[in-house]
Structure to design on (227 residues):
């Protein structure tokens, strides 16, 4: 019996060794799985980096909005202009000239011409050429300047048959309007010149254009008093 027991001991040791090896292998697998699980749940993984992308997005619209007003900003004048031309009614201080026999009839016809143009295109501070308005150095003013010059020329055509010594105020005022409109066009004022001196000269011309209809009306009124 003692010999048989001794012969069974190596087999038992081999079985225990095999069981221990299997247990060790299973323990290693569970440990690896645990590490993998912890790696997936770690705050330092790819999930924590995701919110950083949207945080940079709002900066683009903000930069665009801050730049937009400066791009659309129009040149602004730092000067001021009289509400009414200084030459209006100035003829009262001058000696009477040659009276036109049909001055009354010409005056009556001028009322509709000037009132219609003034209502349609604006006048003085209501004109697109008024220096303090944002449209003063734009194509809108250029269009109004052309209309004002056309009205001035029409006014002169209505007295073409008159004595050159009559309607002197109307002739002078109409000439002033035409020259201002031509200056505005020739200097490309509608493109808002870069130089301050150029802009000031354009605004001066625009101011005369804005006064066109009051100046022409003043000329027809002056003719009634032989001026």
């Amino acid at each position: 019996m003692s010999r048989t027991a001794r012969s069974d001991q190596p087999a038992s040791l081999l079985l225990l060794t095999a069981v221990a090896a299997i247990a060790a292998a299973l323990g290693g697998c569970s440990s690896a799985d645990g590490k993998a699980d912890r790696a997936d749940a770690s705050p330092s993984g790819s999930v924590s980096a995701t919110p950083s992308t949207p945080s940079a997005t709002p900066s683009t619209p903000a930069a665009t909005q801050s730049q937009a007003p400066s791009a659309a900003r129009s040149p602004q004048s730092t000067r001021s202009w009289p509400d009414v031309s200084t030459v209006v009614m100035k003829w009262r201080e001058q000696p009477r000239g040659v009276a036109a026999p049909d001055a009354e009839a010409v005056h009556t016809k001028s009322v509709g011409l000037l009132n219609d143009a003034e209502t349609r295109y604006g006048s003085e501070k209501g004109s697109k050429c008024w220096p303090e308005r944002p449209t003063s150095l734009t194509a809108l003013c250029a269009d109004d300047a052309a209309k004002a010059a056309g009205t001035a020329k029409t006014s002169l055509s209505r007295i073409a048959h008159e004595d050159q010594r009559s309607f002197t105020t109307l002739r002078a005022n109409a000439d002033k309007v035409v020259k201002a409109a031509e200056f505005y066009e020739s200097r490309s004022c509608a493109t808002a010149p870069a130089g301050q001196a150029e802009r000031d000269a354009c605004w001066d011309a625009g101011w005369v254009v804005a006064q066109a209809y009051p100046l022409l009306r003043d000329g027809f009124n002056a003719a009634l008093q032989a001026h």
Observations:
- The longest helix spans residues 2-41.
